[in-house]
Design a protein that fits this description.
5 copies of one chain form a homopentamer. Chain A is mainly alpha-helical. Helices cover 74% and strands 0% of the residues of chain A. The first copy, chain A, is built from 11 helices and no strands. Chain A is elongated, with a radius of gyration of 27 Å. Chains D and E meet through α3, α7, α8 and α9 of D and α3, α8, α9, α10 and α11 of E. Chains A, B, C, D, E: One of its GO terms (molecular function) is chloride channel activity. Chains A, B, C, D, E: Keywords: Cell membrane, Ion transport, Membrane, Transmembrane, Transmembrane helix, Transport. Chains A, B, C, D, E: This is Bestrophin. Chains A, B, C, D, E: Belongs to the anion channel-forming bestrophin (TC 1.A.46) family.
């Protein structure tokens, strides 16, 4: 995620990082060059074009704008929905930690005041591990180091052997809550309260999997790509006769807008990708980690800060 | 569902699988041919057309774009909502398995440590059967083999005799939970927790039925089809005088865009159909199956992988 | 609801049932005729019209398209929301039946194994009656026959005397659940579970009442109707000079699209009306009925099937 | 709220009540007059205008249509959301009444069969008072009479002294439920069930306060008003040269559409205002009142009916 | 937030406060000046421009309108969603206060009638502190004074030392509820009820953090800014030849609309910023404070009122 102050008009000229400019520049230049050729061909009388293509071209362009608008809306909705699920992750983890500490770590356990603290600590650490495991799972990274810091070796081994490490962690949580209930450390109601947090994390996991592994329908994407190419390739021939040497300028402006929107939709479609406009999963996992460690009263790692405006 | 890397500009030229190109090609060629005829007729002086039809045509085209945009949005929403319900299915099944194993299979059942394991196993297997039964029910397939692997023969018979096999499975689940509660194996609260999962699966089932059996209003679809045909059939006559021999090119581009969007809307409208852009119900059911078997510690079947980019 | 295969291009020419064609045909013909008159008047020199009305006309038409688009979206949302509530009805009824049978009809009631079955049966029958009563209430029909089949005579009398029969049925349900709880047949938690179903049905009822009795704001509808008429009546004069004898064709195409969208919005606005594009309340109630009777193991009535593609 | 049959084409000409026609007529006439002046000035050679303003004007008009479309959507969403909250109010009140009667008024209270009835009655009456108090609070009316009919004098005094009467009523409810629980008349679970209704009413209250006291962002409204004025004031000069004496007609049609949409957005923005297109809060409160009194078996007041199509 | 009556046509001319006029005026004047230069250059024959740029310009402008429309919709949704979360805050706090007072402050605590009142008071005061702490956290202010009034000194110290003061307050709440439950003052169910309020506040906090710290994707914003600049800078050259000295007027009107929408989107994107169109967090926190103090029967501070129409 790019975090920087609103760029000034001047900066808009040259900012590249996190924008789609570099991605679309070759295409824009190509269209502009094609326009020059078209104008030249007309001036040289190599080519005869009807002068009134502007209206049908603008009809095609308009249809394209409307469809690109809807599709970008859909891509942005995926991006924002993904962020909401990571927000829900933070809600669930904080609630888990808050309730686990309040219910178990009360210094009131008869005879063994330390046991409660240990139990709460293990539960909260497992929650932190879940956040890291989810980030790694969605990005295809191995978050082994972060897991090793918070899990016991045998649990770590079980989790890493799973086909779905975050889901394996949820099963470990549920097992532990069931054991605490069976041994009378949790009543039915307090067990239910804590177990609902596991259900909430499970919902976050499945929602993120849905966004990660189900792209927009292929036919939709291809149809829009094809229409965008069709439009931009016809553009030089539509504008050359009308505009003369202003055609390359306007064709470039239009190609930039349409290819830019198209590229942007591609980038937002997968919000978990490790790209500049992707969601900063590591920073979010670190935020959760710090909050949970504070709840335990343990020392906090540094927050992750943007590096040259980029937060990953 | 088509799963393949973003196609390059070059691939866009020839990719057919999973796109609507083949569906709309005959219509596009027809419109293009009609344009040629119209241009020819004008050149041959067989036909006299006003030269200023472009503006009213573009008004009709614009109205059509806007309405197609809204309708495609509605179709895509159905598709994505369907995917969300299958995500919810996975959430509910995993939670069911997690809680059933944690609550029942604890090796702590006095005297009969094995009984708990058997109970949990039967409950989880029934959950897997539900996923397969739902996929079969929505696609009109018989998933008998997959059911037989996870259900006892008498239960299988009851389920297959039902007018709604997934719903019959839910009743079996509810019966078993009620029995476990009555025999004291579940308390009221743990019964409530597990029974809520059955409620969640019931919600998924009814939502999928809604999407499957309630198409978009017929009048809506027909109105758009008719307007699209009207527009595309008038197009050659609107463009011929203006554009001359460029008319067939632009008419084809416009017809491709509009018929393409229209066909795409049709394809996304029923996300459970067994078509390239449909949801990969079998692969999703397999994903659920693998997760649930892992929760039981049983051997996993292979995941379903895309066959030449196509996942069913 | 119209249920038929996607019409072919050929069928689009003549399908009438369930489309809005008949509704808008008189208006379309009127506009077309007016166009002929306008062209004739110009040719006869009776009328002098500026030739450049196309641009302002297209501005008015575009504004109209956008607003019609938004309004049709709102109408469709009402229609789809209504269908969702009927989906929720089916979820709640099935869950009610599933839980009532599982919790009460267990053959384990000490001494009176039959009582449990009778209680469950009465509860489930009342649920079926609710579905029929709701359909009748929303459509203004008397569903007395369907109610009489499932309710005891005194209850039937109370329900029919009520100002809101479905709501009266919910009160009967709540009374019975409270009695079962008081007599110890339900514990607090199982009572809560069943009573939540009554709450869910109450939510469905109130949501359907909202959609049924609160139309879109009158001023919104009137403004759009007026703009549509204004536009279509000005159209002949805007196109006559430009297009000559092609004006009636294009005016008819435009009038068909705009009046058609307008009429479609009217039809979808009240999804419970007994019209071809309305929701098939009776068929949905029958679906619920069949599922609930199967849960009781009782004989099923036939499902309602579309009659010449029309399902009511 | 205006409730009347769909107006015929003929009625559209003269219906005023509940439409925004009267509001925008002066502006429309002004624009039309300005157009006449512009045409006259051109004919008289007092003014020279470029003839090709139509395209830039239509660009401005289109941008305006799109933004008005989005804003009207936002206003309508507020209106419909407000209606949904009043629907939720009815759900919560009916459920409160249903459960209060079923749980308390059972004639089974040992020794004092009457006490249960009195308790249920007081609870239900307080619910009715809540509906009236909310309507009064949102409209700035004093609903003292309606409150006095359903509240004891001391409670009425406390409620009317509060800064937020509906909220004060909710506190009274919560107090009474807590007392019933403390005295053993409600168990923890039945208390929880009834208390959740109070939470639901609290959610309705806060949501209505949000819609009532937070208008759309002022800058948004002003920008659209200014653009609408700009557009409509430039219109006569843009159309005069092109259209001659047809300019006043088209300018009026466009001004009617744009000012009308703008005025409509204003009217829907505050759905609780006491205007023709506002929500019929009194009628809704009366509907709730009648349903609750029926649940108690008490005599019902008449429903509020539309007066010359207008329901308040 | 600006709260003032709908401005009259006259006031629209000069109102500045809370509108984006001042922000965009320099740009609008710049574009207008550039137009004058372009017209002058043409008149002086310094520059030759094609006269038919209007159609491609309007295509670019239309694409821009559509994308700006979608983006403003997204910004407005963030703004309204933020307001909804503050509405949820008020719901949760009122419910917390209502239930805490009803359950604890009953004068029925055997022997120590005062203790219940003190407990309820401390819980409610902590709720008020949460509202102030959240406002301060989201706006980057120190709300120390408001916290000190409602928190004990040691708690205040802990909260202010936290990396996330509102979250620290939630942990204090959870601790206190757990203690009340452990000492038997709350049963499992009443504990659950009150603890769910803490969960609700946690959800509000995380949702506000999401909106506050995750801007719209940078690439989206930059693409729109660049397209808006491109369009407005090309505008003078597109209009000069066509419109002559009317070009500066129309260019200014268009630049005002597009730059205005763009600036408005920026302003609504961060609804917690301390700007005129931001949400009035302090006033909302004060509203919550007054309601909660009334629930305790304590004296109320004055409500915050708009200062020259501006409520912060």
């Amino acid at each position: 995620m790019i975090l920087r102050p609103r760029p000034t008009a001047w900066q808009l000229l040259y900012i590249l990082r996190g924008t789609v400019l570099l991605l679309v520049l070759p295409k824009v230049l190509g269209i502009s060059l094609l326009s020059c050729l078209a104008v030249l061909s007309i001036r040289m009388d190599w080519l005869h074009l009807p002068s009134s293509t502007a209206v049908p071209m603008s009809l095609l362009g308009l249809a394209l704008s409307i469809f690109l608008g809807f599709r970008n809306n859909a891509s942005y909705d995926r991006w924002w929905e993904a962020r909401k699920h990571w927000g829900a992750l933070i809600i669930e983890l904080r609630s888990l930690a808050r309730d686990a500490v309040a219910l178990l770590d009360d210094g009131a356990d008869p005879g063994t005041p330390v046991r409660g603290h240990h139990d709460a600590r293990r539960l909260v650490h497992r929650g932190i591990a879940f956040a890291h495991a989810l980030a790694g799972y969605l990005r295809g990274y191995d978050e082994g180091d972060n897991l090793a810091r918070y899990l016991a070796p045998d649990e770590l081994a079980r989790v890493r052997a799973s086909i779905n490490p975050p889901d394996a962690l949820l099963r470990e949580m549920a097992q532990e809550f069931a054991t605490l209930r069976r041994t009378g450390r949790l009543t039915d109601i307090t067990w239910q309260t804590l177990n609902e947090r596991v259900g909430g994390l499970s919902a976050v996991l499945a929602a993120c999997e849905r966004i990660r592994f189900t792209p927009l329908p292929f036919a939709y994407t291809v149809l829009l790509h094809r229409t965008a190419y069709l439009f931009c390739l016809l553009l030089p021939f539509g504008l050359a006769e009308l505009l003369g040497w202003m055609a390359p300028v306007l064709a470039a402006a239009l190609a930039y807008t349409f290819f830019g929107l198209d590229a942007l939709g591609d980038e937002l479609e997968n919000p978990f990708a490790h790209v500049p406009n992707g969601l900063p999963l590591r920073a979010l996992a670190r935020t959760a980690e710090r909050g949970l460690l504070e709840a335990l009263g343990e020392p906090l790692p540094e927050p992750l800060l943007p590096q040259s405006y980029l937060l990953m």
